[in-house]
Amino acid sequence: MTKVALVTAASKGIGAAIARELRHRGYELAVLARGDDVHAIAAELDGLAHQGDVTDEAALRALVDQALDRWGRLDAVIANTGHPPKGNLLELADAHWQAGYELILGSAIRLARVTSPILVKQGSGAYVAVSSYAAVRPDHQRPTSSVFRAGLSAWIQLLAEELAPYGVRANAVLPGFIDSQPVHSLTVATIPMGRPGRVGELAQTVAYLASDEASFVTGQSLLVDGGMVR
């Protein structure tokens, strides 16, 4: 049986690595990103692409509709995003906080709203949100990320409970510092394993949570951080 995965923010970095790992495991891929380079990753993976913003429910629906038209099902829904605004905790404007909500939490809620009825009807499937260690260890340098990713963890627990009776699972991964971006040596020194995570390692963890190997795992927020958060 063909398995189909949907990955957002998939044109580069963590999203592209997840898409490649899932393709390696035999999934057909439908990918979304804002830039036109999303078409290149889709061509590489022999998949479908929709150019649009993860915060736009219409763009999410368009991608889902394309996937259903081509393959007739969804098996793995990967809610990945870019990074929200940074700044001083008490100097960030309302617009910054609203942007953080829309990117981190609002987009995950909308993606689940679009895809959950399909998974429930099938009686199978997995939803995986890519979050951050800041969900459990708030970081002053990343206030909007810390606040809304903590909310995302709570929401994942609620979603998991909602979907479990239908055979559908929901989990999150909480990466620490990953080599998809440069990591300063002072930051590396705080990681017990002594190095940043490799983007492929994170992608493999996401693929595990999406797979039948994790068939009894739901409602979890799994740290992938080399032991950084104790």
Q: What is this entry, summarized?
A:
The protein has 230 residues and is α/β, with parallel strands linked by helices.
Question: What are the SSEs and their pairings?
Answer:
Elements: E1 3-8, H1 13-24, E2 27-33, H2 38-44, E3 48-51, H3 57-71, E4 76-79, H4 94-122, E5 126-130, H5 143-163, E6 169-175, H6 185-188, H7 199-210, E7 221-224
Parallel strand pairs: 1-2, 1-4, 2-3, 4-5, 5-6, 6-7
Explain the overall architecture.
The protein is α/β, with parallel strands linked by helices and 230 residues long. The protein has 7 helices and 7 strands. A 7-stranded parallel sheet has the order 3-2-1-4-5-6-7, with helices on both faces. α3 (57-71) packs parallel to α4 and α4 packs parallel to α5. The longest helix is centred in the middle third of the chain and has 29 residues, at 94-122. The protein is globular and about 45 Å long.
Key traits:
43% helix, 230 residues, 7 helices, alpha/beta, globular, seven-stranded parallel beta sheet, 16% strand, 7 strands
What percent of the residues sit in helical stretches (DSSP H or I)? Answer: 40-55%
| Classification by helices and strands | alpha/beta
Report the uncertain regions. none
Strand order of the largest sheet: 3-2-1-4-5-6-7
Note the total helix count.
Answer: 7
The mean pLDDT is 96
Shape: globular
Distance separating the two termini: 41 Å
H-E order: EHEHEHEHEHEHHE
The radius of gyration computed from the alpha-carbon positions, rounded to a whole number of angstroms, is 17 Å
* Largest sheet data: 7 strands, parallel
